[in-house]
Amino acid sequence: MYGLQTDINGKTYYFNNAGKMVYGTATLEKTNYKFNTTSGECYYALLSAGNINQYTIGAYQACEVVALYNGLIALGKTNSKSIQQTINTLPRNINPNLGYSGNPWDASAVNFPYNGYVIWATALTSFAKSYAATAQNISGTSLVNMEKQTLKGRPIVIWGTLNMAKAHIVNSNYYGGHELSNSHTYLIDGYNAQTNQFHITDSIYGKYWKDTSTVVKAYYSNNSFALLL
């Protein structure tokens, strides 16, 4: 059993219940950590997130809530609900700031772009709070903060693009943001400071490491939406 994380000059350290700093490797609350063997600074974290594929369950347009659910699995906070139950209890609204716009089970997205087939950070954060009280809308946050929060064992849902490719904007004034034809949402559930990579759980393409600059570029191109769990 380990004690509190401590930030010293922007760096993260862990201390055990005896007050001694943790060095080397450790698994804390189902998250794998690596620490500098001399300084004790944490430089690596990888959470035990879920790996639900949205296509496998038929939720073709539900990347946002599947990313959220995979993060809730890491925290053990699914409230004993299945992913299907979670999707079906999403608030619905034509305005994605207020709820999900469209039908997340629609394979063909026939009403796009009138329905964006998206839910944005404000609405998803409100929904997430019924599962994790720590849920916070951190849209616009910096790369440095993403790295810092991940090293603390907190997963982050971010809005980006399919394959982290260039954003295809179809409406630049869609309820106060950009509407994309290649919007996608994924979970940051790990970070390695030595390689400058985030670990991504992607509800279409699975789990992989990706350099932080590519991840953040995709995030900035899709309204800079982010949800911290």
UniProtKB/TrEMBL annotation:
The keyword Transferase applies. GO terms for molecular function: transferase activity. The keyword Repeat applies. Residues 52-203 form the Peptidase C39-like domain. InterPro entries: Cell_wall/Cho-bd_repeat, Peptidase_C39-like. Keywords: Repeat, Transferase. Cell wall-binding repeats lie at residues 1-21. PROSITE patterns: CW. PANTHER family: LMO0724 PROTEIN, PEPTIDASE C39-LIKE DOMAIN-CONTAINING PROTEIN. This is Glucosyltransferase-S.
